[in-house]
Design brief:
Elements lengths: L23 H17 L9 H10 L1 H12 L4 E7 L4 E6 L15 H8 L9 H8 L2 E2 L2 H7 L10 E3 L4 H5 L2 E8 L2 E8 L7 E3 L1 E4 L1
Parallel strand pairs: 4-7
Antiparallel strand pairs: 1-2, 2-8, 3-8, 4-5, 5-6
């Protein structure tokens, strides 16, 4: 699909410091927000109980910091499952559209550097930003699984983890939902668009 690149129009993304401990007030407000979202969207996590999740979060302040970064960049994180093998809850960005605080970004650092050599400055890149936030980019399979519990990216798109053989050749992949169908596409890793960010997930 040919789309016009938003050259130079990306807003700089604030530096995300996820390893700093949140203040008691910040933690309380975030937990209240997460609990309200959890209770409003029980279809995403049938059979799971919030008190058990909150107890895990309170015992892992670094995970709360990551969730705060997800929330502050528009991801609206929510619980979407439980990993029986690791006994961990799975949080994922559940905003209706690709998080608006993470758009106009290239796929990775190499792609961003290639763009900047031409005097064009994207707002950052998905791989580095996810790492700074302490979360993982969704794989294509994880993205498709998310779409089974709701309808996401009907107007936007999101970068997903790119297989090494594709990235080696200069490409990167992204997904969206159109016509009630989830699509996988490709672009050069240096491309960036005002309607494309990325979704991440976090195990707690």
């Amino acid at each position: 699909m040919a789309k016009k690149s938003s050259k130079g129009s990306g807003k700089p993304i604030p530096k995300v410091k996820v390893h700093l401990k949140l203040s008691p007030r910040e933690s309380e407000e975030l937990l209240e927000t997460l609990q309200a979202r959890f209770e409003e969207n029980m279809n995403r996590h049938k059979g799971l109980e919030w008190p058990k999740i909150q107890a895990k979060l309170e015992a892992q302040p670094e995970k709360l910091s990551s969730l705060h970064a997800m929330e502050s960049t528009g991801g609206e994180p929510d619980v979407i499952g439980y990993d029986e093998k690791t006994a961990e809850y799975i949080f994922c960005d559940c905003s209706a559209e690709s998080p608006d605080g993470r758009r106009s970004i290239c796929y990775d650092e190499e792609g961003q550097a290639e763009r900047e050599k031409k005097g064009i400055h994207p707002a950052g890149n998905a791989v580095d930003l996810a790492d700074a936030m302490g979360i993982e980019l969704l794989t294509e399979a994880q993205y498709r699984a998310l779409q089974k519990i709701g309808e996401f990216d009907t107007k936007t798109s999101s970068w997903v983890q790119t297989p090494a053989d594709i990235r080696k050749l200069g490409g990167a992949v992204f997904c969206d939902r159109r016509y009630d169908t989830v699509f996988l596409y490709h672009n050069g890793a240096q491309s960036f668009y005002s309607a494309r960010g990325f979704r991440g997930r976090l195990k707690v």
